[in-house]
Amino acid sequence: MNWKIISAVFIALTIIFAGAFIGVYYLDSSAIAKEKKQLEVNDANELATEHWNQIAIENQSLIMKQYASNATLNWIGGPLNGTYHGSSAINTTWGKFFTAWQAVWFYASTGTTSNPIVTVNGSTATITANFTQFVVQSSSTHDFEYINTTYTLVYYNMDHSANNNVDYKIVDETFHITGSGKLSSLE
User: Checking DSSP bridges between strand 144-157 and strand 168-182, what pairing results, if any?
Assistant: First the structure.
């Protein structure tokens, strides 16, 4: 046996197998990068919950960071009823909401009602909550009230770079008041 030929074949096969392994790994990691560019259901649900929690803590600057500059807020019912286009109009609307209420608490839908429905389609994720409730305390009377809503948030990935980053922003939101009233007591 010629050890030089066997060594050369061994080295050649090692290079071929290493190249095949790297090629498969590269293809697999590219698929992972593409998947990371698309929001997953759990991530979308977390974005929506984060939005509602920011409302509850009345952190208007954090809320506004969640919107695309050309977003639309559809407020159905109550004194803020209307359609608001663009971050400036949306910021003003949330400012009016927070001025009316000195305290806000958020309750998400749970197993006794329906959980939020999350649909992901390419760069868009839609979250629909058939029941959310905010308990609020009036700034003027200090009375406690409830606001029942159905809620829809539409997120869009604003990052279209080749870096496979995700930068989901709210592009459309519907805050639909389905019921409200005074609470007898929270004590």
Answer: antiparallel
pTM recorded for the entire structure: 0.72
What the block records as the tokens of 132 is: 């959310």
Length reported for the chain = 187
Helix, strand, coil tally for the chain in percent (to 5):
40, 35, 25
pLDDT in 10s for each residue of the chain, 187 residues = 554 554 444 454 445 544 444 444 333 333 333 344 455 777 777 888 889 888 888 899 999 999 999 999 999 999 999 999 999 999 999 999 988 888 887 776 544 456 788 888 888 889 988 877 888 888 888 888 888 888 899 999 887 665 666 788 999 999 999 999 888 755 4
Neighbours of 27 (CB within 10 A): 9
Instruction: Please enumerate in sequence order all residues whose Cβ is within 8 A of that of 162, keeping only pairs 6 or more positions apart, or say none.
Output: none
3-state secondary structure of 115: coil
The three-state secondary structure class of 82 is strand
Runs of H (alpha helix) within the chain:
3-37, 41-56, 60-65, 86-100
Coil/strand/helix, residue 165: coil
Burial group, residue 110, by CB count within 10 angstroms (0-12, 13-18, 19+)? exposed
Could you give the CA distance from residue 184 to residue 187 in angstroms, rounded to a whole number? 9
